[in-house]
């Protein structure tokens, strides 16, 4: 596999825990099959009033990476489909981006990888007399995760178990530790791709002189 080779299509075997509504949901239904077919995963769709009206589509490779070139590839792929389906009745700016370091957490595997890091959580219903939480993700299982408050209120339990079924929004909080881990992961991914490229080049040149 060369560095510039097309990515294989991936299966949607891990659905997102948080689904869009309204116009965002209509856009997601249009673009997600295309994104999967190109070898990426949809993270989030959000229509906002930024810069007039901006449609932001967050996506990533299966390994969590997303380059500027990847964003341009997906933008060229989904733009014609959105033009045909026309789910937004006003002019808008399309922005395809990576999730970023302080990324939204939308799949169970996101929470597993984020264990030990600070996150902001919002639930769809009251839980422990609250709907907004902030703390470190301590553990994750099939049904939910345990969050340890970074600034617990006196008298309150320092931890809360949040079911995935009540999840409304979740996002990592940018910290020095998170940045360092992200840089290490990015370096490891680049090293792996370089090795794949070298292996592919060796295979291509292996028949010389036969």
How would you characterize this protein structure?
The chain is of the alpha+beta class and 210 residues long. Helices cover 33% and strands 29% of the residues. The strands form two sheets. It has a five-stranded antiparallel sheet. A three-stranded mixed sheet has the order 1-2-3, covered by helices on one side. Helix 2 links the parallel strand 2 and strand 3. Helix 1 crosses helix 2. The two termini are 23 Å apart.
Summary keywords:
three-stranded mixed β-sheet, 8 strands, alpha+beta, globular, 4 helices, single chain, five-stranded antiparallel β-sheet, 33% helix, 210 residues
Q: Which descriptor suits the 3D outline?
A: globular
How confident overall, as mean pLDDT? Answer: 88
Largest sheet properties:
5 strands, antiparallel
Protein structure class = alpha+beta
Give the beta-strand count. Answer: 8
**Which series of helices and strands comes N to C?**
HEEHEHEEEEEH
Binned, the helix content reads 25-40%
The share of residues in extended strands comes to 25-35%
Low-pLDDT runs of 5+ residues are 206-210
Rg, rounded, reads 20 Å
Distance between the termini: 23 Å
Oligomer: single chain
List the helices and strands and how they pair.
Blueprint (H helix, E strand, L loop, with lengths): L21 H16 L2 E9 L5 E8 L6 H18 L7 E5 L10 H6 L4 E10 L2 E11 L3 E6 L9 E5 L3 E6 L3 H30 L5
Parallel strand pairs: 2-3
Antiparallel strand pairs: 1-2, 4-5, 4-8, 5-6, 6-7
Helix pairs in contact: 1-2
């Amino acid at each position: 596999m060369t560095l510039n080779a097309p990515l294989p299509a991936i299966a949607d075997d891990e659905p997102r825990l948080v689904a869009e509504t309204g116009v965002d949901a209509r856009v997601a239904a249009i673009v997600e099959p295309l994104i999967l077919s190109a070898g990426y995963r949809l993270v989030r769709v959000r229509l906002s009033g930024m810069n007039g009206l901006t449609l932001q589509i967050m996506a990533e490779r299966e390994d969590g990476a997303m380059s500027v070139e990847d964003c341009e590839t997906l933008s060229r792929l989904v733009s014609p489909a959105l033009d045909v389906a026309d789910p937004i009745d006003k002019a808008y700016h399309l922005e395809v981006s990576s999730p970023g370091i302080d990324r939204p957490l939308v799949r169970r595997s996101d929470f597993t990888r984020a264990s030990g890091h600070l996150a902001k959580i919002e639930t769809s219903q009251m839980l422990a007399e609250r709907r907004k939480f902030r703390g470190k993700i301590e553990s994750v299982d099939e049904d939910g995760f345990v969050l340890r408050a970074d600034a617990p209120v006196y008298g309150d339990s320092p931890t809360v178990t949040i079911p995935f079924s009540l999840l409304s929004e979740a996002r990592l909080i940018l910290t020095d530790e998170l940045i360092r881990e992200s840089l290490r992961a990015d370096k490891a991914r680049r090293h792996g791709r370089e090795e794949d490229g070298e292996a592919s080049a060796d295979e291509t040149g292996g028949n010389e002189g036969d």
